[in-house]
Fold this sequence. Notes:
Layout: E1 3-13, E2 16-22, E3 26-30, H1 37-54, E4 55-58, E5 64-66, E6 69-70, E7 98-106, E8 111-121, E9 127-133, H2 135-141, E10 149-153, H3 167-176, H4 183-194, H5 197-206, H6 216-227, E11 232-236, E12 246-250, E13 255-257, H7 263-278, E14 282-286, H8 294-311, E15 314-318, H9 322-329, E16 334-340, E17 343-344, H10 354-360, H11 364-367, E18 377-381, H12 386-395, E19 403-406, H13 413-426, E20 431-436, H14 443-459, E21 465-469, H15 475-479, H16 482-488, H17 494-507, H18 509-528, H19 531-534, H20 537-541, H21 570-585, H22 589-596, H23 606-613
Parallel strand pairs: 3-15, 3-16, 10-14, 14-15, 18-19, 18-20, 20-21
Antiparallel strand pairs: 1-2, 1-7, 4-5, 6-9, 7-8, 8-9, 11-12, 12-13, 16-17
Amino acid sequence: MPIRLDKIVVDDFKRIESLEIDLQPVTALVGGNTSGKSSALQAAQLGVSILQAALRGFRANGTPDFAGTVANDAVLFRPTELLLDLRRGGSATQNLGYAITYRGFDLDANVEKQIKIEIRRGKNANIAITREGDDDFAAALANSDHPFSIFTPGLSGIPIREEWRTKGAMDAAVMHGDANLYLRTVLDHLFTRDLDEMARVAWRRDRNIDLLPDGGWKTFSQLLERCYPGTRVIVSHVAHRDRYVNVEAETTDTKVTLDMASTGMLQVIQIIAYACFYSPPLLLLDEPDAHLHADSQARLYDALRNVAAETGTRVLLASHSPQLIQRLMYDPDAAVIWMSTGAKVPVDDAQRPAIPILMTLGALSVGADAFDPARRVILMTEDKLPKPVTALAKANGAPDNLAVLSYNGCGNLPAARLLANMITDMRPDARIILHRDRDFRTEQEMQFELSTAASERQRNGVTRVTEIFTPFNDVEHSFAQSEHLREVFNELDPALIDAAITDVTAFKRDEFVNAARVARDQIFSSLYDVPRKRAKPEWAASEMPDNAPPTNAFLPANGLTPVSFQHTHGKRLMDGLRPKIHQHVGGASQLSNNRIYAVTDHLLAQNWVDAFTVE
């Protein structure tokens, strides 16, 4: 039964409550590390593996015979040791379980097909299976000789040697999710299945794709040629003599053993080899772009599209690659699904361009909040951890439903600004506050950077974006103030708080001095040593000096003078203060950490108040 798979529905599985995946020839799942991407791939493979375990054979009338229960260990693909533990919210019971549904199209009969598999607890801790739908479709999914789906992780390389395996062992491996361990074996099986001895000799001698007989090896070679022009794969293995499979990759100017080929080439070879050997209706790829450079990701995109077009295989993948997603987003034969906390994030056409930028910033996991119409103020922060900056914002008038989106460090500031501009286009009702750490800047330096950024936004017609620097060197610096800590830990003697600050400042003196030197060197090279910045009108308007202030102005006068609170580094200071305070407070360390980031009046800063109270 030739099948085109059109939809997968997952219910109550791991992080997923209910998820419908409408499949295109190539469908990509994107999202943060806990968004549910891998759960969706695992569910798709698990349903097939459970049906394989349940199929006992065929009755005399040709109908499939499925068992109602199977042992846990009989299922080849197991994302966790006990499959009943995969139910969302707790282990499966006799009444509560999880379900995977497949909907497709029988290309011969020209009819739609559907099968829903529900998994619950059976007797003696076995897995109870109920099916609803077309049993002939279920039998096609359960065909162990022709695996319906293949699940493989991204390759980071392959072993130097690989023992040859039978097709049965290889079939089991692809259901286990170990397809990446058998790359040479599948190439040998593909080569020997589709070419007779004369054709194999001719291929090893001439490498001429046009002379190959029609079949999987020819399709494989053609697809590889499209991605890596001039590249040929040469398989040398005699079953009764060779324990290990010898495979070489030959380009127009080099010839290497397969393990010496680039990771990008290996990834492409793996994908098209399995697609051409098995022609599976579904190919599941978990981050095939991992470890690949941008050029290799472009070739990977070509391989995915060509595999889908030439073999009819539907490709479902999870990706962290902005470059790959950028291409797939505008491909009419592809789909990109943004996931967060196990569900799809609704994205309209206007919002789609933000996805690759959010991926670049590593902000997909929280980026969904930026498009929530209930959240009208969006704080973009350069900090990875949102708790401190959220508390600082709320202390200065930010709303309770503030959306906080991390852009992970000032190195991504240009991308963060671009994303902020895009969000204002997509969310005409929202205001964006872009947080930056002061990092030992002077008042004039901060004013210059804010003014030049504001002028750039004005030239581009961007409104409702405001940039703000922290009151001290970073966010944590505000929470290290003695007055704030005294109020938060009012059960402690204030002298203990002051002594802790003094001790940590003395102990970390060298760290603070080095942090100031590094920061001032960066400011010199990025501001004072750039003639075009000096030529900007904002330079004079901000009263920037001709020469950078001496670094010594940010350091203690001598070895006997302590580092001033103003010139400490807040994150390093807080790293030392937390354990000292916890010694006096006791209890769970997390509770005292949470108290540090409470809201008090001592956190007020006029520039932050102004940013969050503007209407």
